[in-house]
Backbone:
């Protein structure tokens, strides 16, 4: 290169360097350290006001120019979330420097559209996307929303789904976003297999997991057999739990393999398993305890020496030990199991290391979230008190009692430790509507269509009082009205008082009857689970409008049964009775029990010193038991036995057996005595009813449950003996669902031993409710 060319290149390089260095000085040195800001401008803002941007930057006229302040100003303006780019320019001027904040505004989102969806509803898609119209949109947020939608589709079983976001400019500074969706078909599981299960049968493993083979008849309802990655991941843990509960302490469950079938119409899922050896318990020791001796602590433990080591029993024993200490106030007790396995003998030594801690006192109890319900209504259900030792069992019972009020959508009891010997308790509730308007119906060959309406306020004025008005009317026979008021704490004492008033009229084939009356009752708890109630009832009854017919001699005679005619001849009669009920109720939740029992014995006496025209006595024994099975399913049994004695027992006091609340699959009262001539229901003096139910979740997200039931029962008149062989039997199924409009219940009962004149087939009944 010549000397001239080298000199020209040197001049150009010097000029470029001078320009670059000048720019750097402008960006960082601010036209010389210490220069003052004499003017502040904003360029590029079309929607956000200039004053807002300047204020957020932190720069002010008159301040000394500072490179650190410039960097912070850029960050502060960018954090506003309205701009894709932020920079700051400066220009030397007389007396200092002019600063310009240059921004590039993000576009405003005008509309979000979804195209191509079919199997998933639009509302479900919108729930996954947080983009809001008429706000600034970040294109990175659009891509993230598309990825979230695609992940949602994967979770719903659409393994081949694709979601493509398309952004289109629709005006100055405005864009629309369209999510183009290619769903593909739902990925169906055609086969579920297990690999490495040497000791455990396939059927037992299949029952332990949620992943099922696709079956067209049921999968449309429950989504069983649809590939979902989250469900597979949970099934790995379910299999581990199953094996650990069977004593396989070294089990390993690998990642499931999802293999497409050759015809590409489904998948095979394979769970790889390494079972290991099955262990039994060699010995169990307790250490670190001083409050209890070994015998006291060991009482009630279910894991025993010489038996299979099962983790679920281990957890149950840890809970038992923890509760035993918690009942004495040791809320912070720590029970740690330690294991020493012996692979050569396949046995395991178990030691419970107990750190007792100190007794804990409740310092303060706070109630939160009750906007309508008075604090007193909640506090009176608590079984723990301030300035007393904590009882963890009583704390759990408090949770059950507050839930059983049925005033709250959610209940939380949150202990907050204060040091090692005190705690505060927060009771947090979320109220739900307690006013209900329910409508029910059914069909009976005797009554025809039946309409029921019920208006209830279960938490009147937030004081826990109940007020209910009920109407029941059928097109053929029945008209019933009732009004109920209940005060759970009468005059502030733990005694419930109830007032009932009712009016009933029923039309039979050959006569009508009416009942008008009311009752007063008191109920008091004795201890935690036992209660007793005393009631007084007075009512007036009348039988009228008896139909007439012609006998063989042409004479006009009553068409009603003789007992009815005799009752009608008495005219209006009164019944004055007193009742006593004793009950023991250990159910966990009254409205949807999963475990526990309820037993009651009721006695009623009418007439005598109580006055009235009727004299009789009634004894009813009622028993229910609930047993949790697996996967949130519940098996329950109900037994009811009743006896009614006395002189001239009125027809309307007799037991009516048959219908949805006694023996399903039968018309109202048709599982009891009827008049052989007229076919009228005459009621029973004795009743025996047995119900067995198995309730199982069908679609948890939809709160849909199924029920299978078997009923046995009958009403007997005073000339019959109660014999098991004479009971009537039915079986059936039903659906119970909680909808936004309220609970819906559909049940179909099938008469297993129809007699001449009785219909066969399934007999449906239903109820529907709504909430206001």
Residues:
């Amino acid at each position: 290169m010549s000397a001239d060319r080298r000199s020209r290149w040197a001049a150009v390089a010097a000029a470029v360097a001078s320009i670059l260095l000048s720019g750097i000085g402008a960006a960082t040195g601010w036209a010389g350290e210490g220069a003052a800001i004499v003017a502040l401008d904003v360029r590029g803002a079309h929607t956000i006001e200039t004053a807002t941007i300047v204020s957020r930057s932190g720069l002010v006229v008159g301040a000394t120019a500072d490179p650190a302040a410039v960097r912070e100003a850029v960050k502060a303006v960018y954090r506003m979330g309205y701009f894709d780019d932020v920079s700051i320019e400066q220009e030397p001027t007389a007396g200092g420097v002019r600063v310009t904040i240059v921004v590039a505004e993000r576009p405003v989102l005008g509309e979000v559209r979804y195209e191509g969806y079919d199997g998933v509803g639009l509302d479900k898609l919108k729930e996954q996307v947080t983009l809001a119209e008429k706000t600034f949109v970040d294109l990175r947020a659009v891509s993230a929303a598309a990825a979230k939608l695609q992940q949602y589709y994967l979770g719903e079983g659409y393994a081949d789904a694709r979601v493509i976001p398309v952004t289109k400019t629709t005006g100055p500074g405005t864009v629309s976003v369209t999510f183009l969706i290619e769903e593909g078909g739902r990925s169906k599981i055609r086969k579920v297999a297990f690999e490495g299960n040497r000791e455990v049968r396939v059927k037992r493993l299949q029952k332990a997991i949620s992943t099922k083979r696709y079956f067209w008849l049921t999968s449309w309802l429950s989504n069983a057999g649809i590939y979902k990655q989250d469900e597979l991941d949970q099934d790995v843990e379910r299999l581990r739990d199953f094996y650990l509960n069977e004593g396989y302490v070294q089990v390993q469950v690998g990642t499931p393999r999802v293999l497409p079938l050759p015809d590409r119409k489904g998948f095979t899922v394979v769970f790889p398993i390494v079972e290991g050896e099955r262990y039994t318990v060699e010995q169990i020791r307790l250490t670190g305890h001083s409050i209890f001796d070994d015998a006291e602590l060991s009482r009630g433990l279910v894991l025993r020496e010489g038996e299979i080591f099962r983790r679920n029993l281990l957890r149950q024993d840890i809970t038992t030990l923890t509760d035993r200490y918690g009942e004495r106030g040791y809320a912070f007790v720590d029970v740690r199991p330690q294991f020493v396995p012996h692979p050569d003998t396949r046995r395991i030594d178990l030691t419970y290391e107990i750190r007792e801690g100190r007794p804990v006192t409740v310092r303060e109890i706070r109630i939160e979230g009750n906007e309508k319900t008075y604090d007193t209504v909640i506090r009176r259900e608590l079984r723990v008190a301030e300035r007393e030792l904590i009882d963890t069992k009583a704390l759990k019972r408090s949770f059950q009692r507050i839930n059983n009020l049925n005033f709250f959508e959610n209940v939380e009891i949150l202990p907050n430790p204060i040091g090692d010997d005190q705690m505060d308790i927060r009771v947090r509730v979320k109220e739900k509507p307690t006013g209900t308007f329910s409508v029910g119906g059914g069909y009976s060959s005797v009554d025809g269509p039946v309409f029921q309406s019920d208006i209830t306020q279960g938490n009147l004025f937030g004081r826990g009082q109940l007020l209910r008005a009920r109407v029941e009317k059928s097109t053929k026979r029945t008209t019933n009205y009732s009004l109920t008021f209940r005060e759970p704490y009468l005059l502030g004492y733990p005694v419930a008082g109830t007032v009932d008033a009712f009016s009933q009229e029923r039309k039979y084939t050959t006569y009508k009857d009416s009942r008008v009356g009311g009752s007063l009752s008191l109920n008091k708890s004795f201890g935690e689970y036992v209660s007793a109630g005393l009631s007084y009832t007075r009512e007036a009854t009348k039988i009228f409008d008896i139909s007439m017919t012609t006998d063989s001699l042409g004479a006009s005679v009553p068409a009603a049964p003789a007992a009815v005619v005799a009752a009608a001849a008495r005219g209006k009669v009164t019944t004055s009775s007193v009742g006593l009920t004793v009950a023991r109720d250990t159910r966990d939740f009254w409205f949807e029990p999963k475990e526990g029992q309820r037993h009651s014995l009721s006695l009623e006496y009418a007439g005598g010193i109580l006055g009235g025209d009727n004299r009789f006595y009634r004894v009813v024994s009622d028993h229910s038991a609930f047993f949790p099975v697996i996967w949130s399913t519940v098996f329950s049994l109900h037994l009811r036995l009743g006896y009614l004695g006395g002189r001239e027992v009125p027809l309307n006091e007799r037991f009516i057996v048959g219908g949805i609340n006694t023996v399903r699959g039968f018309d109202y009262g048709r599982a009891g005595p009827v008049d052989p001539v007229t076919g009228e229901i005459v009621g029973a003096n004795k009743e025996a009813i047995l119900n067995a139910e198995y309730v199982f979740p069908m679609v948890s997200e939809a709160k849909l449950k199924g029920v299978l039931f078997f009923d046995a029962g009958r009403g007997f008149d005073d000339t019959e003996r109660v014999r098991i062989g004479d009971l009537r039997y039915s079986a059936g199924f039903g659906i119970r669902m909680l909808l936004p409009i309220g609970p819906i219940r559909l049940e179909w009962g099938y008469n297993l031993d129809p007699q001449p004149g009785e219909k066969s087939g399934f007999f449906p009944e239903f109820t529907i409710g709504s909430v206001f």
Confidence is low (pLDDT under 50) at residues 1-32. The longest helix spans residues 3-29. The domain at 189-274 is CATH 3.10.20.310 (Ubiquitin-like (UB roll)).
